[in-house]
Each structure stands twice: as C-alpha cells, then as structure tokens.
Design goal:
With 557 residues, the chain is of the alpha/beta class. It has eleven helices and 20 strands.
Length: 557
Amino acid sequence: MVAAVLAGLSLLSLLTCGYLAWGSRRGGAREAPGNLLGEEPAAGAPRSQPHIIFILADDQGFRDVGYHGSEIRTPTLDKLAAEGVKLENYYVQPMCTPSRSQLITGKYQIHTGLQHSIIRPTQPNCLPLDNVTLPQKLKEVGYSTHMVGKWHLGFYRRECMPTQRGFDSFFGSLLGSGDYYTHFKCDSPGICGYDLYENDNAAWDHDNGIYSTQMYTQKVQQILASHNPRKPIFLYIAYQAVHSPLQAPGRYFEHYRSINNINRRRYAAMLACLDEAINNVTLALRKYGYYENSIIIYSSDNGGQPMAGGSNWPLRGSKGTYWEGGIRAVGFVHSPLLKNKGSVCKELVHITDWFPTLITLAEGQIDEDIQLDGYDVWETISEGRRSPRVDILHNIDPIYTKAKNGSWAAGYGIWNTAIQSAIRVNHWKLLTGNPGYSDWVPPQAFSNAGPNRWHNERVSWSAGKTVWLFNITADPYERVDLSARHPEVVKQLLRRLSQFNKTAVPVRYPPKDPRSNPKLNGGVWGPWFKEDEKKKKSDKSKGANKQKKGKNKKKAH
C-alpha cells in the first residue's frame, strides 16, 4: 500500500513539476526569474552591508540538535533557530573538503577537480588557485575578512593558505582533524606534526593546552572587540567540533552520565561545549555592537558518523555516503534582518548557494565569466518565496568505481553505473554505483556500552544492484526504491548526470609527497612545495637543453 502511494505521488510530481525539461548551467549568479537588474531591493533586504557570521560545525548529525528531537541539549542552537529560519531541505556534501570547497567557491566539486574524497595532509593539492573565493569577493566591497578554525582546503604551497585566498587573518588548523588540546596530528606512523596556525606561521605561543572550541571562541571575541562595528566584517568560524577524536572538558559530561555508550557520551559533551561557545559568540556580537546588522548562518559540513557518536536518525546512512544521512544537514539563519522570523524553510537549498547569496547581500558583483552552481536564495529564506533551485548534483566521482556489477547496460547505455554518483531533481533522487554504508541507526543503537549494530535497520538488495530512485519529498528516509517502477525517470536523471559530466574538469588527487613530512618542516604541518625549487629545476632543464642545442650545432657544422 505504501509503495503504491509513493509511486502515485512520484508519477504526479513528474507530471506537475516539469522534470523532463532540464536547464543548462549558466554563468554568474543563478537567480529567480523575477529578480531583474534595476529593481528596488526587496523589503526584507538589509539597508546597509551586513556583518556576516558563518558558523560551520564539523560532523554534526542531522538528529543532533534539540529541535530535531535529540537527547543532547542545545539551548543556544534551538533559540537561534526558533527566532530565525530553520532550513529543513538543506544539503551539503558528505565529507569535509567537498563541503568547504563548495561553500567558498559556489561551485560543485566536478568544477574544481575535488570530486574524489578529501585533501590528504601529504598530498600536493589544494583548492585550485584560479577559483575566486567568497572572502576575496567580499574584500572587493570593503569587508574585513577573518577565519577562525579548520581550513582543510590544502596547504602544500604558500599560495594555498587562507591568508592568500582572501582572509585578512587566520587562526586555526590546516588539516581535517587533530588533538583538541595539543593540536598534534599523525597522518600515519612516524608522519606527525603540530597543526595550529596564526596567519602563515605556527602558533606556538597559543599552545597552552586550551580546548580548541573554547580557544577559537576566545579568538572570535578578540576579533569582534578590536574591529569597528561600523565597518562590515565577514567572520568564518569553522569549529573542529564535533569531529573525532572524541574529547571534551570534564564539566560538559555532567548531564550525560546516563548515556552508556562512551562514544555517544563524549560526543554529547562536545556538542554541549559547542552550543555554549556559540552562545558566547552571540553575546559578543551584541556586546560590541554588531548584532542588529548581522546575519548568522549555522551549518554542519556533513552528516554524523554513528561509530563516532553522531546520529542522523531517522535518515538513512552516515557521513561519507550519498544517502540522506550523509548530505542532509542541520542548518538555519538567524538575523534581525530577516523578514519572516520564526519560520521553517522547506525549499531546496544547497551549500553552494551561500556564495552568490552573501555576495549579493554585501552589495558585491559577480563576474559574468564565473560559472557558478549556486543560486541567490535570500528571498527564499527571508521572505518564504519559492527557491530558484530545482536540482542538486550531489557528486560524480569517476575514480570511485567499487560497484563491481555496475555497467553501461544497467544505465540504459546512458551512464556507467559503476561510477559513484548522486543527483536530486525536484522530488526525485537518483544514486548510482556504491553509495556507501546504508543502515538506519536508531537512538536505541547507542543504548549499550559499546558499538552495537543489532538495533540497526538494514536493507538487503539483490546482488548487482547499482541504481536507486527515490521520491525524497514523499519518502525522505529512502525506504522505497522506485527505480524499477519508473525507468523513464531513471533515464532522464541519467541523462542529466551525463550532461553535468560533460562540464567536469579532471580530478585532482595526486599521490603523497614525501617532502610533506613535518619532520622536514620543523615538526609543523605546513607548506613544503617551494617555488624556487621549481624554478631551479626548470632553469637547469633549460640550461641542459641549450647545451644540447649547442652540441648539435657544432656537429652540424
């Protein structure tokens, strides 16, 4: 009966929402049709350049906020969200680097070359230097730009560092994770180093054993105290919490002694500390005169990791997967400048949308030659209008082809289903390849002292399955696969994947470089690629070529 209802809804949505008419990728900011040049600002738009505070949590699960029913107390997040706009159809990427790169460029991974995995500490890789970043665009219109927290967009060259990508100041870590107190990180046995920076140098002076969530908050308070609130500021706060390792100050365990699962208990303490930190940031905004003209955006970078204490219930899957539990995120906007405060936005919003949205709010310009994948969604959020976004390319990863039974035949000759990919178009979502860990992990799974999968709900699919289709609006928990019932929709989405793939740039995923070892850099993770070395090598090769040419000339004579 449920399957029949879902199928009916799916067919109805196909007929009513125009899924068969695909739009092409366009240059510049992607806006709603009615937003024409020369129109007066909308009633809910800020009167002057607003202060922009973007808070990015790390690995926070979809359920891990009070207003989503969590047993973990988050009074600050609950209050800010209740007084602002909750984003309940909001998507990010399933891992750290991809979400951060899309936030800062407004582009899908296939358009930056970062479509495979994350940037590893030992890889000579970073966000491509030819991509204009959000802080660079905000600086053009007079913003002071500051970053506090986790970078994770590469650092092998000095040009890749945050201060070279548009931030006036940077205080935080370059890697994806590390000890919350010592700030040391081992990538593999013997490859270990210190990872705390102030601008372009190791911040040894700040190595006082302070828990990173609290240390980053103190830095934010200092920045706000020293800046003139009459001048616009962009503050990007990328907290390390609640990413593993699971560490928290002892006092935050007080309310969670009853949680037997040690990972969940530690995770709860970390989230409680993060909630308090955001309260302190909000108080500082009020104290120093920023709040009334500020926009606070809160987002997780990906879904939670159940084995590390996170919960995405009732969504399917986890961090690192393209099931909803990996990509549907906690998110909200809090601002006195919102028109419809205290509302819930169920329109489609993606992390790439912040780039054009914030630049437009800042009265900036988006060059026509910048091929963005994001849309300006401020009117959607502030005024409750329809979202200009109708689709999301979750990703196409041509390197991840672990679905052994995938084939062109399974993709109707349109797409090789061995390739890991996922796309959302209106209510439809299509996955191909191996989407990753697919269990539903209910709260009961955390009831025991150790990891327990007995409570998990699992789905066994027929051997060789490499295509799934869901109506996400009717079935947000991805319980009823409709791919066999609607092959015509599957074909349309496969064609859309193929269209996107034609615009993809080559994947950037180089092998590790032994020169990255912190032992060769004073015990610190940091830039190791020297431009001078490259010039010397090229000069030597040029000299050798000249000598060869000279010898050849003599032989000719």
